[in-house]
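Worked Example 4.2. Read the sequence first, then its structure tokens.
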Amino acid sequence: MRTIGQLASAARVGVETVRYYERIGLLPKPPSLHDGWRRYPDSVLQTLRQIRQGRQLGFRLAEIAELFTGGRTASCASLQAAAYAKVVELDQRIEQLKLQRERLMELLGACPDAAGQADCAAIKQIGWVIGGNK
């Protein structure tokens, strides 16, 4: 059994994170004991670690809540489906970042020797680079 500070430290999260997860229902609120302190069982530490791992993999809290509700772990099929959806989402973001990088490189190449010039070709082109009107 751990206090909230001990629990947060062991899970490498802040105390306010633990309280927030309690407020939104990801963690159960333990009852206060006779000394006024709430003590958390080791199962809560495991849940906190699962939440942290899910966040590191890019899952949103709502997605984590769907997968791990009420101390119940998701089925293998539902976890695989969620992971696959996350991979598709990441692939889309990677493509968007590649396009953004390409457009920035075009912008940089538009005026390579214009340092300090008031009439910079890159500034004139920025409208179509950002707006996509190429």
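Now turn to a second chain, presented in exactly the same format:
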Amino acid sequence: MQGKGLIRFFLIFMLILSVYTFALFLPTNVVENRAETYASQQVSSLPEGERELARRTFRQKYLDSMSNETVLNVGFRKFNYMDLKKQQLALGLDLKGGMSVVMQVDLKDLVVQLSDKSEDENFLKALTKATENQVNSQDDYITLFVSAFREIAPDAKLAPIFQSELREEITFETSNSEVASILREKANETVGLTFTRLKQRIDKFGVTQPNVSLDENTDRILVELPGVEDAKRARDLLQATAELEFFDTYRIYEIQDRLVNGNTRLKARAAALKGDTSATDVATLEDSLNLLNANRGPLLSKLSLNGQIQAGQYAFQRCVIGIANVSDTAEINKMLASPEVSVPRDLRFLWDAKAIKDQETGSSTDDILLYAVKVPSSGEALLQGDMISTAGTDLDPETNAYTVSLGMKPEGRQVWARMTQAAVGENREVAIVLDNEVVSSPSVQSAITSGNTQITGNVTPQEA
């Protein structure tokens, strides 16, 4: 009898689990079917050979726009599309299809940078040999490099090659074994940061139930993306270089009128399209009708400008242009790039790297901040990551707050001095950007000519 009771218990449990799983799949399937219908409508007028790629693009855009929209409300809790997808039973690549990629972290470039691009003949030969051996080896690159160097130049020392960049850790007397340990430590840090950054990118890519794993012995990262159809988009996302950049910023009062006027013009265009039944651009017509708002207009119905949020008082730093729901960022980007919104030629809009937190609970919200940075005519930031020699975190003993410390190389020191000198008069903000997202926007309190910078703010140890 006990055996029958146990079997009955498991049957009931499996039935409940099946019903729960089905409840998770049903709302997301509705959204995905709508995405398919929408995508098919958008490509119906295209030549047949162009439809499939365009269909995938439109489908993904629709799903991206729905990622934070509520699709299931059970009274005591609301679930958005991504909430449900993350809780669904994972379907592997064998059942769902998708994309599997093995990525090798390129530590050769790290070693070159740590050597200050040394031209030492033995060093260059060791790099080449290590790269060749890595193809058929299960050893990590640092081990292969040190082994190759010892084989090529048994009596030569590694310390002089790395002493310039790692002067705080390496002296001319440091042994080859000690240098190897220091290089391995730097490599582990780089691989770990790369792994973390990849996971962050994939989370924002919108892939459900991805598998990202690290083989620490070979510094290889396995990425499995079930259900991905647009392989090129995924590959571009995974392989893109993470660029660290520093930009001067615009403040809201410098471009507010342009945004308000642009919103008025967008509103007029939407009204014109509403009455123009002969319009051929169906996507633009539908987007315009959806955004048309009699009171606020298309742009300002999605983007709340800083300074209008609290009746004329700035709710955030003055370099913050406005705040919007994460799900609206794609539409806002589209409007900001339209001819109706006229902004200075050197202005580039960028979003914050993370959603803002609720001041009372400390939990993340669905709202995100928009910034506007000044881009030089070259298209590149004046100060970039390769001009930084050291970076670390500290704990301020007076405030007990975490800070970030940066040390600049000589060329970076000069650029940073000019940037901070120009910003100090009004305590203007500098935007620190990673992967085209603003990770920090500190105010410049004084000109920094030494190249040593401390960034303070209300951040957690992990954020620092």
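Notes for the reader: The first strand starts at residue 70 and ends at 73. The radius of gyration is 27 Å.
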